Amino acid sequence: MKQLNKWQNAIFIVSAILMVAGAVFSILRWGCFPYIYAVGAIGYVCMQMLQRYEGTNFTILRLRRIMLLSNFLLLFVAVLMFASQGYTFGLDYWFYYLSYVRINWVVILLLAAILQLYTSFRIGSELEKEAKKR
Question: C-alpha angle with apex 8: 114 to 23, nearest 5 degrees?
């Protein structure tokens, strides 16, 4: 698995903190929480995309695909956060429906967080197994 350099790792950590801050600020009803979360989610997902796996272990490849799904969900949560604030992006009919769903982005965020947690621990253990074989 390709490791991030010092700057990329710093961006990764700051982005994760911004995502948590955006979620916490939503509880406090602070108006710009979607922007904070969105910036954090974009940085977090970009840094995870830079961590490539160049091996052939099927289990790690499968876990990377699950992580990609989780990354998509994290970005989708940012869109739903904006929708909960009343932004329509020109799709009034779709976001009118989402206004009834209001806070369900929390469920998707929870699912994405669980998938991130699962894949990060499993990929780490699989990489250790692969290193022991060599």
Answer: 40
